[in-house]
Amino acid sequence: MLQETLKQEIDQLSESQLRKIADLVVSLKTQAAPLAQGELFWQRATPTERAQNFRAWVSQLPKAHSSLPNEAFDRGNIYD
Fold first, then answer.
1. Alpha carbons within 13 A on the beta-carbon side of 65
2. What is the pTM of this model?
3. Which of 31, 28, 24, 29 minimizes the C-alpha distance to 10?
4. How far apart are the C-alpha atoms of 62 and 71, rounded to whole Å?
C-alpha cells in the first residue's frame, strides 16, 4: 500500500523535485551499504552513483555568496 501511494506521489513531482528524490535515494543507499572488504564508495560506485552522490553533497552546502571578498581574488593583493 505504501509503495503504491509513493508511486502516485512521485508521478506528480516536478523534474527538480525528482532530482532531489534521486539524490536522497543515492545518499540512503550509500549510508546503508556496508563496505565490502574495505572498499571505498568511489571505488565500487558507478559513475552515475558517484555523480549523484556528489550532487547530494553539493546541495547541502550553504547557498551563501563567496566566502572571500572580491579583493582576495586580485593577484596584486597577494603581496600587500
1. 3
2. 0.41
3. 24
4. 22
Sign, Cα dihedral of 67, 68, 69, 73: negative
At 48-69, the pLDDT tens digits run 989 998 998 888 887 776 677 8
Distance between terminal CA atoms of the chain?
66
Q: Which residues contact 25 (CB under 8 A, 6 or more apart)?
A: none
Q: Are 23 and 58 in contact (CB under 8 A)?
A: no
Question: Which DSSP letter does residue 72 get?
Answer: G
pLDDT tens by residue, 22-52: 888 888 877 766 655 677 888 888 999 899 9
